[in-house]
Model the fold of this input.
Amino acid sequence: MAWVEITADEYARHFANPVACYLKADFNMLNAEKVDKVRFFAFEDKGLRVGLAVGEKCDEWRSPYSAPFGGFVCPQMQTIACLNTAVRELKELALSQKKLLRITLPPFFYDRMFYSKVVSALLQNGFKQSYANLNYAFDLADGTPYEKRLHYMGARNYKQFAGCECSFTQETSEEQRRVVYGFIQKHYEAKGYPLWMRFEDLLKTAEIVPIDFCLLRVDGVAVASTIIYKVSEKIAQMIYWGADQSALDKRPLNVIAREMFRHYQEQGFDYLDLGPAASDGIASEGLCTFKESVGCFADLKYAFEFDGTHAGMGA
Done:
């Protein structure tokens, strides 16, 4: 029973169907230039039971190193005994290679049974919880009508645009995709937020992940946009959204929340992940309130670390 290093091709074969695209070998290789090396490991115990991909930079291993989350992947459900052993052996691997290992997991709803056991194993076996971010999503499989999910503020804002003519379209030409990106870019500039991905980065990612570039029009005028990754067969994730700052009276983000909900529910998705409303464990109270007001539920997205750079550390 031990962790062994395997190739990207071997990782792709053994761990072909993770809960999200971010855990696949090809996604981990997508931005390999950002780290010194991408390394793939598997916990072997009468077969390769658990996988972990990390980006190595100096004395750190990060999973993910360029994605919303990373962590463990299994070809089939594993027992808590197996996961406890895998985590204990992972500590030994980090110590033997003198690495600081950082792991950010998906929110629980991606696989509640599995990630509940993973968190238990990490805490039980000496990993330090770095933080837990609040993460928000739409439950699209729940039959509750959208309007009945809204909190007071969301319901009030909904009434303001209920009579508007809205269209939510997926744009396929490069010209229109640039329009989608442009709304987001200006929105982020207005809010003072960093925009980590360039338009060219998104096109590169779209070669291996299905991406929707969507534009919202209210009464015939384009007012907002969003970029959505189809991270698995049943889960879509909003990566970015943005609105025309001169059209805020039309409540464009409230409108686009409703339209995204309807669109991906009609496409048969179970969840639409709207991402975290926190950074390093510190919640953005305004963003939390907004996402709750438009009908999202909250979940936790854990981050852990183990310091193997010095013998005896982190144990």
Notes: The radius of gyration is 21 Å. Residues 141-269 form a domain with the Aminopeptidase fold (CATH 3.40.630.30). The mean pLDDT is 94. The longest strand covers residues 128-139.
